[in-house]
Amino acid sequence: MLTALNQNKKSFVAPLLSRSELDEIRKEDLTCPSCRQPVLLKAGKIKIPHFAHLAKSTCKFGSKESIEHLEGKLILFKWLQAQEIPARLEYFIPSIQQRIDILVKWNNQFYGLEYQCSKIPYEQLRERSEGMMSLGITPIWIFGMKFLNRKRNSHLGLTSLLQTSIIHFPEVASSRIFFLNSLMKDFQIFYPKARLNHTAFGGFIQKPITNLSFPELFSLENNHSVNYSFTWLNWKKSLRTKPPFAMTELEYNFMKYLYFRQLHPQNLPSIIGLPSINSWHYLQPDYIWQSAFIIDYYTKIPVGESFTYQEAYRSVAKYFQEKLTTVYPSPSIHPLYSYLLLLEELCYVKSTNRSTFKKCKQVLFPKTLDQALLFDQNLMYLLNKLRS
């Protein structure tokens, strides 16, 4: 940890002290600000100066910290100081028994910056977020580089931990995930637009931390269009052709679902499995609830007949029961509603008002694998043409 108290309860931030100041406080009785147990000053050549608990310490914050975590906290703290934004480093709150990496006050609102470099269960992240929120502190999770699984320019590998930390700002109608490279001292912000299983599609902004202000974390926008054609076509081909022995339990149960309807993945309409907006908090992949909607509901509606969004939702409601709970406000558009808007772009439905849609045409069920792959390619071509 970076902070400690002396016997007069004066706080010290080790890496902000000169060598002579470090030599002076080494002579004092230093304690942890959280547990008040003794700590030692460590000022060697590998890590930045910091404090460490004694070997027999029972403090819950006494575990070793990585160089990345220590340096990242210091970078963020100095960044806030340079903007003259009030900030407290390693702020302990007894009522919730949590130590926040950096407590920030900006625009009459408190924020808890947490620089997460090690893997933890997403339930623990949620619990810590809930603790802060219970006191009116908005948690801002910033992840280290080991979490940045950047697959392509606009693709990010999602984990449950990242999904739980996606913060949505209703004021600018966008969501984002924050990453900090403590070595290069730059921020990378990912703006998720849609999800395909464990991959999110969106846009990245990368900026040196000195070229970014704290308020810009909330206001900076990314309006680049997203092209997921290549990734989607490869995934759809895999879904259509994967042998049973290579399937996960989820995929095997989906195969049984299709079997009881006398279908095979190669017969699925191309419009099943399209990435939908705002689906990252739900555990069921999009292709499963979209299959239920198209096969069990949409195909049974005569062309020209209308249906309400509420009726459509009831047909797939059970697939949205399991979700990763989060403390952040949810986006206003539900994944199913965004899917209906996408079907409207493709002329399958037409909205007559905000909650009512009219079916315009039936879906095509391919008869062969070659036909299915051709339909998939045609669909991606059409979507790209509509959005170019």
How does this structure look, described?
This protein has eleven helices and 17 strands. It has 388 residues and is an alpha+beta fold. Strands 5, 6, 7, 8, 9, 10, 11, 12, 13 and 14 form a ten-stranded mixed sheet that branches. It has a three-stranded antiparallel sheet with strand order 15-17-16. The protein has a two-stranded antiparallel ribbon with strand order 1-2. Helix 6 (229-241) packs antiparallel against helix 11.
**Alpha-carbon distance between the termini?**
51 Å
Major β-sheet annotation: 10 strands, mixed
**Structural class label:** alpha+beta
Please state the CA-atom Rg, rounded to the nearest Å: 25 Å
Strand tally is 17
What is the mean pLDDT? 92
Q: Number of domains in the coordinates?
A: 3
**Global morphology:** elongated
Instruction: Report the portion of residues in β strands.
Output: 15-25%
What ranges have pLDDT less than 50 throughout 5 or more consecutive residues? none
What letter string, H or E per element, gives the SSE order?
EEHEEHEEEHEEEHEEEEHHHHEHHEEH
Tally of helical runs: 11
Helix percentage: 25-40%
Assembly classification: single chain
